[in-house]
Specification:
It is a single chain. The chain is an all-beta fold and 153 residues long. It is built from no helices and eleven strands. The chain has strands at residues 2-3, 11-12, 23-32, 38-47, 55-61, 69-75, 80-89, 95-105, 113-115, 128-138, 143-152. The strands form four sheets. Strands 8-7-10-11 form a four-stranded antiparallel beta sheet, with no helix packed on it. It has a three-stranded antiparallel beta sheet with strand order 5-6-9, with no helix packed on it. A hairpin with a 5-residue loop joins strand 3 (23-32) and strand 4.
Length: 153
């Protein structure tokens, strides 16, 4: 355990553990300060032995959105450069906007990818439910895609 230099509210702990069982797991950490005040943090994670690149926890925030939103997702390929394509679909299945970004994901989550709430021609989209699909290709050629929903107010 190590305290951050010059800070009394943060530090780090490195504890190796082996989990061989596939599935969802939870780790909880409990710590106390010098005045014996406790705090608890819980980390949920999934062990997937397949090793294939995949997305989880797709998020568009805010959702519902009035003036645009930001897309993000968690993935299992940290420290990876990837080409990300987000396609927004209307309720009848038409692609109304395509956003392409090249991102460097330094952890297990994509950086926020903003969307202004407009279609490909710059026009404001009508109120309603839209689907969005994220597709990504890593530098080593691994591919993944997933779909989420967003409501436009």
């Amino acid at each position: 355990m190590r305290a951050d230099i010059g800070k009394h509210t943060s530090g780090s702990l490195v504890y190796p553990f082996v989990i061989s069982e596939k599935g969802e797991h939870t780790v909880s950490m409990r710590a106390w300060d010098n005045l014996n005040n406790p705090t608890v943090e819980t980390l949920r994670f999934v062990v997937d032995a397949s090793g294939s690149f995949s997305f989880t926890n797709l998020l568009a925030f805010p959702n519902p959105a009035a003036d645009g939103t930001k897309f993000t997702a968690e993935h299992n390929s940290p420290d990876t450069q990837m080409d990300v394509t987000i396609t927004i679909f209307s309720s009848d299945g038409r692609a109304v906007r395509v956003i392409r970004e090249q991102v460097n994901s330094t952890g297990y989550a994509l950086p926020d990818i903003p969307w202004d709430g407009c279609d490909g021609n710059g026009g404001r989209l009508a109120r309603g439910l839209y689907l969005w699909r994220i597709e990504a290709v890593t530098d080593d050629g691994a591919k993944s895609s997933s779909t989420g929903r967003i409501i436009i107010l």
